[in-house]
Amino acid sequence: MKAVEKRAVYLKVRDQLADKIHSGIWLANDKLPAERQLSEQFDITRVTVRQALVQLEAEGLIFRANRRGWFVAPKRIDYDPSRDIGFVRYVEDQGFHARTETLSKQLVEAPQWLSQLTGLAEGTPVYEILRRRYINDRPCLVEKIFVNPKHCAGLLSHSLNQSLWELLRQHYQLEPAERYIEMYPQTLDAAIAQQLNVNTGCASLYMRRICHDQQGEFLELDEEFWLHNALKVVVSVKPPKP
Amino acid sequence: MKAVEKRAVYLKVRDQLADKIHSGIWLANDKLPAERQLSEQFDITRVTVRQALVQLEAEGLIFRANRRGWFVAPKRIDYDPSRDIGFVRYVEDQGFHARTETLSKQLVEAPQWLSQLTGLAEGTPVYEILRRRYINDRPCLVEKIFVNPKHCAGLLSHSLNQSLWELLRQHYQLEPAERYIEMYPQTLDAAIAQQLNVNTGCASLYMRRICHDQQGEFLELDEEFWLHNALKVVVSVKPPKP
DNA sequence: AAGTGGTCTAGACCACGTG
DNA sequence: ACGTGGTCTAGACCACTTT
């Protein structure tokens, strides 16, 4: 066992910056000093500064907005993918401001992978909705939704900047039964990264939700691409009775 | 709109390496060429090579073993945190080899944060178990478990290299009722990184599970530190009847 | 001892965002 | 126009693992 742990320069810098955040000297959404400024301050190269910053980013303590700078990350929001009370309300219950923006909506033919997952016949028309969601005016996720139009004709004529499930419930009396959820850490491809105003290859949490109704018919599939440091997933489950 | 998307050198290198993996030229657990060798091959600096490698690591396509090299990552395993059929069996059902190793087990006083989460009186004795789990001989997670000894006296005298829940069920007739699960992307601290033979600050998925029995009494809390590219979380939930 | 990744220096130019 | 991060070069030394 070593008496003294050797800690790389970039980790020491990380520690000092982390301190400023934890001690409240820098608050959520504050801009950090420029990289060049930090490199002078600590008398190290910009490369090393960036190593420290990237580390803090991976931890979720800071985030960057493409070419605008580094900022102190706000607290993660709790997110329960098994609930459907509406994103905006859910987030605002936690004291944040939330907003949804519809990027596109159209009727498309179900792609092959979707058919395989849901049992829909290939080529069946489905609604495809693309939305971007903000927390405190920071774009935090993009979601792509496929809805089975069978029981909700005319869905796209409604505003989709609100809770989709509230809409499905109130206008179409649809109710989700079982949800199959999948998620794993990933990175953002160029297209989605751009929509979130971050770098290609940025760390993310990918989440997919497939939802059927009580009769076992496919209702909705939802793919969410989250900034990895924006959320904490919480879910409460009871084991199936054997 | 640009006709041609400009792609950085390191992303082009990433693409070429990713191709070798996707096309099956390199197989799971194969070692990649040394960084210096790659930098010669592509006629770029080692820095740029590393940028490509780090990118692939973030995507989960490759992993590194501290100072030993870069390797093609095997497929993620599916992991359902709501089930308790036993890690080893669960993983082997998917065609992998799994192994569990107990790093330590002891009776400790419940730390404050544990009491706050579970409602246990502070200082109550609880079993603390530290385990490391392997998939195909690659250490993939470390878990720290706290068990309420109230209904399972003598637990630590058993071998803990097996399914804990099988043990609790068979020897103590304990059955989990509701589970509260939390998870989010994080990084590994120095201690855990070392136990997984990876670098400090390595990307991970943190998962915490709190489990009570039918009477609402605290049974077990489990903290898992996963290599971020080792798993895909899958969970199936039914919404509570309102 | 040799080879590997891990860290770090001291620069440079570019692309984009903001005033 | 200027400041910012994004990318890249061409080296160097260190710490650890493997042979």
TrEMBL record, chains A, B:
InterPro entries reported in the protein's UniProt record: Bact_HTH_transcr_reg (IPR050679), Chorismate_lyase_/UTRA_dom_sf (IPR028978), Tscrpt_reg_HTH_GntR (IPR000524), UTRA (IPR011663), WH-like_DNA-bd_sf (IPR036388), WH_DNA-bd_sf (IPR036390)
GO biological process: negative regulation of DNA-templated transcription
A molecular function (GO) term: DNA binding
Keywords annotated in UniProt: DNA-binding, Transcription, Transcription regulation
CDD domains from the UniProt entry: WHTH_GntR
Domain of life: Bacteria
Domain called HTH gntR-type: residue spans: 7-75
Protein name: Transcriptional regulator
Species assigned in the record: Oceanospirillum multiglobuliferum
